[in-house]
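Q: What changes when N-(iminomethyl)-L-glutamic acid is included in the input?
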Amino acid sequence: MSLSHLKKAGDAIFIDSKVTKANEIISAWNGTEASNFSIIGVPLSKTSISHSGASFAPASIRKMLSSYSTYHIEDQIDLKDYKVTDFGDITMHVTDFEESRNRIRSTISELLGQYKETMPIILGGDHGISFPSISAFAQERGTVGVIQFDAHHDLRNTEDGGRSNGTPFRSLIDEGILKGEHLVQIGIRNFSNSAPYTEFGVNNGVTIYSMRDVRELGISKIIKESINHLVDKVDAIYISLDMDVLDQAFAPGCPAIGPGGMDSQTLLDGICYLASHPKVCGMDIVELDPTIDFRDMTSRIAAHVILNFLVEKVKLLNK
Ligand SMILES: N=CN[C@@H](CCC(=O)O)C(=O)O
Ligand SMILES: [Mn+2]
Ligand SMILES: [Mn+2]
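A: The predicted holo structure follows.
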């Protein structure tokens, strides 16, 4: 017997045969092959210094990709002709955070080791996941340079509270995994940091652009300077995007919101300028808590970050 006018629960309410949705180009890893583009979820936010539901972000960002099409009108690129491999989520230990970080480092190392061509977009999680993730890149891709978008330095000491979302870059520098001169921080904000951590950054050769620099110099100049600074020193460039670099008006779904931050178009422009460089080969998106978001605004920006990154990489492939 058949019943008419039924669709599977969860399927889109309306399907337009002339439109491809971004989620349709993503397919689950089949255990053997991976595309040049991949995503992997890292649902760890118990290591956050404030209450955080960022462990729910991988699912929320994936869901928001189904709200947008694959077509970039301005560059006349349609991502529908490309594939993204979804490796799923790394399983976190319930209580042992060191074990969780070890799992993140080893899984991302294995992924990078097995698939030399793939550019993973890592969906956190709180910013603590960048310590093991960037460690994996350093192990597998050579000397790594990092461009960090963030309101915060994340150079806190580990004596006060162990490794957390406030310490990833301190740990990377202290452990000799990342040289201070190979780290560029963009969007650092007033009243969100303290002088000893700015001094630690400056003394270790970190390049720091505050929000005033973003307003006065412009994001295009900042990215050009950052790439010029890194390009001959490193083998690979990794983008670490803390969503709280955005102003609270654009990204309400972050634990550490505040005024005076970046607008979403400036961020998207920055991501595009970076992604158009061949040495940029990986990115994480962190500190997005969908449980405190409004109409998934913050997850929607994350989805657009991914789509813009892919468009620039496709333009490079077609050159
Ligand atoms: N990556 C985030 N760093 C912030 C954390 C803020 C928070 O979770 O409240 C920091 O160190 O201040
Ligand atoms: Mn931050
Ligand atoms: Mn951060």
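Observations recorded in class: The chain has a mean pLDDT of 98.
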